[in-house]
Amino acid sequence: MTVAEALINAPEFTVSELSSALKRTVEDAYGHVRVRGEISGFRGPHSSGHCYFALKDESAKIEAVIWKGVYGRMRFKPQEGLEVIATGKLTTYPGSSKYQIVIEALEPAGIGALMALMEERKRKLGAEGLFDEARKQLLPWLPEVIGVVTSPTGAVIRDILHRLQDRFPRRVLVWPVKVQGEGSAEQIAAAIRGFNALPEQGKVPRPDVLIVARGGGSLEDLWSFNEEIVVRAAAESMIPLISAVGHETDITLIDFAADKRAPTPTAAAEMAVPVRSELMVEVATLARRAMLCWQRSQESRRNELRGAARALPAASELLAIPRQRLDSAASTLPRALRANTHAHFRRYAAGSARLTVRVLRGQLEHARQRLSVSGERMVHCTKSLLRHRRDRYAGLEIRLKASKLANAQAQRQAVARQHERTLRLAERARRALETAMQRHQARVAHSGQLLAALSYRGVLARGFALVRDEHGRALRAAASIGPGENLSIEFADGRVAATADASRPAATSPAKPVAGEPKTAAPKRVVKPVGQGSLF
Q1: Looking only at Cα atoms, what is the longest distance across the chain?
Q2: Whether 237 and 202 share a structural domain
Q3: Cα-Cα-Cα-Cα dihedral of 391, 397, 403, 406, to 10°?
Q4: 19: alpha, beta or left? (left if phi > 0; alpha if psi -120 to 50)
Q5: Containing domain of residue 229, as a range?
Q6: pLDDT digits (tens, 9 = 90+) for 119-147
C-alpha cells in the first residue's frame, strides 16, 4: 500500500474540528502555567477593557491576553518592556491559528524589575515637576491637629502617639488604611485627599500637618507607596506632609513628593512637634534675658536724663531774650495801629469818591436794559418752543391716524383671509365627508355582496335543498338518517316536512359534524341493507 492510498483512508477533518481538537490538546496537556518574559506590544487596555500584548525572550514570543475583570483586580499592572512572571491558562485562538496564554496573575520578575519600574516612574513624575523643591511647604512650628495615615493595628501608630505624648501632646486624627496588599494604594491616596477636603472650621478639625507612616519591609511590601496615585495625592496635598515609610535605608517615591522625609515614624513625630520641656526652659531664659535687658535700658535712660538735665541752662536765661522782644513789640504797637487806621481811611475815601448818584443811575439803567433784553429773549424762546412742540404734536397726530388706518386695514385683511380660509376648510370638510360617506357606502355594498355570495340561500336559489333533522341540525350524509326519522327540507321559497323511507342502504361510516356545530355523540342505528329510496 502506497502513502497516497494510506492518506486516502485517513479520516477527514473540517477546519473547525481540527482547531477544536488542537485547542483541547493544548489545554489538556499544559493547563495552568507560569511564564517568564518581557512585555511587548502593550498599548494599554482595549476599548472593550481587555488587554492584548505578547511575552518574549531572546528567541521566542507568545501572545497574551488579560480579560477586563482580571485586569481591574490586578495590583501590579503590565507595562511595555517590563520583565514579568505571568500565571495563566494556555489555549489557542482558532480565528488566527495561534496559541496564547490567558493571564490570571502578573508579578514582576524579581527585585531588579521592581527597581527598574520604580526608576522609570521616578523619571516620569520628576519630569512633571512633582519632586521640585519649589513645591514643598514649610512645616508648622507647633500644629494644633496632626493627621496620621497608617494602619490602626500596627505598632507605628502606637510609636507616634507615644512620642507625641513625650514631646508635646497634640490632638491626633487617625485615618485607618491598608498599608500593604491589593487596594492599599487607593486607600492611602483617598485618605490624603480626604484630610485635604475637610473644611477649616468644620465639625471635624482640619489637620495642620499630615504624617503618612508605615513600618519597615521589603520592596514588595512597600510598593503601595510607589504607586502613581499615592505620589500624585502627596504632591497635590495643601497640608504639609511628612513621609515616614519604612526604615532609614528604605526609599519610596512618596519620600520625594512629600514636604519632609522622616527616616522612621518616631522621627516623623519628632519633626511634627517640639519638646515642651525645652520650650518651657527656653521661654523662661528668654523672659529672664528680656527683664535684664529692660532693666539695663531703664538705667541707661535714667543716666542720660540726668546728664541732659545738668546740661540745660536756667529758666531765667532761656526767657531773657523772648522777654526783651515782647517789650520792644509792645512799645511799637500804638504807632503801628495809628498808621494802619490812616491807610484804611485813605482807601475808603478813594472808594467813596467813585460812588456818585450819576454812576448809580447809569448802573441801574444798564441793568434795566439787560433785564428787558432778557425778557424779550425769553418770550421769543417760549414762542419758538411752543411752535416746535405744536408742530411735533401735529406730526404725531398725523402718524397716529395713519397707523390707525393701516392697523384697521390690516385687521380687515386678516379677517378676510381668515374668512376665506374658513370657507376653504369648510369646502374641504364637505368634500372629505362626501368622500368618506361614499367609501363607507361602497364598503357596506361590497360586504353585502360578499355576504350574499357566501350565504347558503344563494345555493338554495340554484335548485339545491337543505335537509335538517327534527332538532334542526343540518344533515350532510344519508348514513346519519335513520328509518322513519322526521326531516325538514328547506328550499329557496320555504320548508317542507318529510319522513325518511325505511328501505335504504345501511350506513358504513358516521357522518362528519358540520363546522361550527357542537360535537354530539350520534346514536348508533342498525338498519337493513336496502336500496336508496326517494325522500319524496
Answers
A1: 189
A2: yes
A3: -110
A4: alpha
A5: 142-274
A6: 888 888 889 988 898 889 999 988 999 99
